[in-house]
Design goal:
By secondary structure, this protein is of the alpha+beta class. 27% of the residues lie in helices and 29% in strands.
Length: 196
């Protein structure tokens, strides 16, 4: 089932999400719905707060990046096969010299800005079967994970912009929160009542 994506301005996007246990109700259905929602919106990552749930869960599928002509074959292969579910994730290390890359967000449609992030991360997380992993990722995969991880920390990519950039985006962000925007996927805006 395709779920509405929560728009900028909704308080759930600012909450630090809480851990879940392996008996979280209907987790398999939730994961299926989240993947379906993400693919419907042409995203490469989706965090639970973006569908209104303040829980530490996000998923990533970087295969669309593998189409990028400018990438090496090695990078394309890594991106093409990277699909992962992260539950109760904690980034334990970030290293390397920060690099800029143009980021967007399904909760903030039609806004893309260069964001500085470190190129290498080590993250601890549980998969969908609640097996624990500690892994290190680099490059675009690390960046997508960092972006989604920020969502479970209550942080948006626009928070990482300069004061000037934030001021320039203010009216655009206000319009998004009011629903004054056209998108080709289901969204829920802060001033709309939840449908039960």
């Amino acid at each position: 089932m395709i779920l509405p994506i929560v728009a900028y301005g909704d308080p759930v996007l600012r909450k630090k999400a809480t851990n879940i246990s392996k008996d979280y109700p209907n987790l398999d259905v939730l994961l299926t719905n989240m993947f379906e929602t993400m693919y419907n919106a042409y995203g490469v990552g989706l965090a639970a707060p973006q569908i209104g749930l303040p829980i530490r869960l996000f998923l990533v599928d970087t295969s669309p990046f593998a189409e990028d002509e400018e990438l090496s074959d090695e990078d394309k292969d890594a991106l093409k096969d990277f699909k992962r579910i992260f539950i109760n994730a904690e980034i334990v290390d970030e290293e390397g010299e920060s690099w800029a890359f143009s980021e967007g967000c399904l909760s903030i449609p039609d806004v893309r800005e260069d964001v500085l992030r470190q190129p290498k991360i080590t993250i601890e997380y549980f998969d969908e079967n609640f097996n624990k992993h500690t892994e290190t990722f680099e490059g675009l995969i690390a960046r997508v994970i960092q972006h989604e991880y920020d969502h479970i920390e209550g942080v948006l990519f626009t928070d990482k912009l300069s004061g000037l950039k934030k001021r320039l985006l203010k009216s655009k962000l206000n319009n998004i929160s009011k629903g004054n925007i056209r998108v080709d996927y289901k969204m829920r805006f802060p001033n709309q009542k939840k449908k039960r």
